[in-house]
Amino acid sequence: MMLKHTKLILLLAFFAVLEGANAQFDFDFGLGIFDFLKKDEETPAPTKAPTKAPTKAPTPKPTMAPEPDDSFGFLYSIVDGQKWCVTASNGVRKGAVVEIKLCRFNTKPLSQLWKFQNGKFKSANDPEQCLTVAADRQYARVRMAPCSVEGNMNQFIYDSSTQDVIRVRGNREQCLTNQGAVADAGDPLLIDNCDKQWEKFLFKFRESADARY
């Protein structure tokens, strides 16, 4: 609106100058100026293209770990009426200490699932990692190590069809058990003399699909 009034004032001033100067007014020229100003008013201002909002990349869905087959199961001892499972609670990296924890039969965590195959206990977290005795001596701890490690300290003699001791093939006088006279959550798994025959030396194995625990 302000621009329109300004142009009108300029046009009137132009006419006044011509009349005051007593000059001959070219009517066609004046009309040309008037049309030019009119067209200029009718020309719409350029409009900006709408700015598009940036497209967000879709959030990737987390990859779920595949469930182990039913041949994986719980390896546990029964001490004072409670069931204590061999648990890879520190992961399955080489050298990780294996512990006992109360069994979680309902949730079936991979850290408590094992497969006894060719004398080796393979982890459901990574079937290429096995229970391995760190040294050939009493009280040596059981750790995780690649199943391909040579030697027989990662091989065991065990009858998985019953409740039995688990002997180390490399030293058959040594069996798996937990540290301490009783069982407590987080006790490291180690080897000790098999002749003690306490209940914490006796292990049962049940496949994860078997509900009879």
Describe the structure.
With 213 residues, the chain is α+β, with helices and mostly antiparallel strands. The chain has two domains: 2-42, no CATH class; 73-207, Trefoil (Acidic Fibroblast Growth Factor, subunit A), CATH 2.80.10.50. Helices cover 16% and strands 27% of the residues. It has two helices and twelve strands; from the N terminus they run H-H-E-E-E-E-E-E-E-E-E-E-E-E. It has helices spanning 2-20, 27-42, and strands at 73-79, 82-87, 99-102, 114-117, 120-123, 129-133, 142-146, 156-157, 167-168, 171-178, 189-193, 203-207. A four-stranded antiparallel sheet has the order 3-2-1-12, with no helix packed on it. Strands 8-9-10-11 form a four-stranded antiparallel sheet, with no helix packed on it. A two-stranded antiparallel sheet has the order 4-5. It is elongated, with a radius of gyration of 44 Å. Mean pLDDT is 81; it is low at 1-5 and 21-27.
Query: Which CATH class of the largest domain is shown?
Result: Mainly Beta
Rg (CA only): 44 Å
Structural class: alpha+beta
> Roughly what percent helix?
10-25%
Distance between the termini: 89 Å
Order of strands side by side in the largest beta sheet?
3-2-1-12
Question: Which structural traits does this protein have?
Answer:
single chain, Trefoil (Acidic Fibroblast Growth Factor, subunit A), 2 domains, four-stranded antiparallel β-sheet, 2 helices, 16% helix, elongated, disordered N terminus
The gist of it:
By secondary structure, the protein is an alpha+beta fold. It has helices at 2-20, 27-42, and strands spanning 73-79, 82-87, 99-102, 114-117, 120-123, 129-133, 142-146, 156-157, 167-168, 171-178, 189-193, 203-207.
